[in-house]
Design goal:
With 166 residues, the chain is mostly helical. 64% of the residues lie in helices and 0% in strands.
Length: 166
């Protein structure tokens, strides 16, 4: 794998961390598998490689790591490192949301609001989005605006949307 840091310069400390984690990940360490995926996704100690990141998140998710299930679901949902596939994202996102991971709760709500991989359901969208924000999660403003717009279009009576946060 090609190694690089910010703007293509080699960051030897990050490169060393990547190699240490890669050895542990290949030996089956689920936490290291997650970190290798994250480093590949963000280009820390290695060039960005989204397909490889997706594969490492999948390994960590199979090992039961909730955060890895979320990252893999998010990559399927947004089409990062492979096909845009909300149908594959849904069960992973639900598992992470059911486990209490706030970002997964938000994006599961988004999936219900926009009908991504599941039928549109404003009540479910609001339930999951509120659950995420009550835990202190601050979703990206652009995502909230997209959801608000979709829910306004659907004009679901009785569906109250959490306020936008700055």
């Amino acid at each position: 794998m090609a190694m690089a840091g910010a703007q293509g310069e080699v960051d030897y400390r990050q490169q060393e961390r990547f190699h240490e984690r890669l050895v542990r990940a290949e030996a089956g360490d689920v936490g290291a598998q997650y970190h290798v995926g994250d480093m590949l996704l963000k280009g820390r100690g290695v060039l960005v490689d989204r397909p490889a990141a997706r594969a490492w998140f999948a390994r960590a998710a199979r090992g039961g790591m909730v955060k890895a299930k979320f990252k893999l679901a998010y990559m399927h949902l947004k089409g990062l490192g492979g096909a845009h596939d909300p149908g594959r994202a849904l069960p992973l996102m639900r598992e992470a949301a059911d486990a209490g991971y706030a970002p997964a709760r938000f994006y599961l709500g988004e999936m219900y609001a926009l009908g991504l991989g599941v039928g549109r359901d404003s009540a479910e969208a609001v339930k999951w989005i509120k659950a995420s924000t009550q835990e202190g999660y601050r979703p990206p403003r652009r995502e909230l605006e997209l959801i608000r717009s979709a829910m306004d279009e659907a004009a679901s009576p009785g569906a109250t949307f959490p306020p936008l946060q700055d």
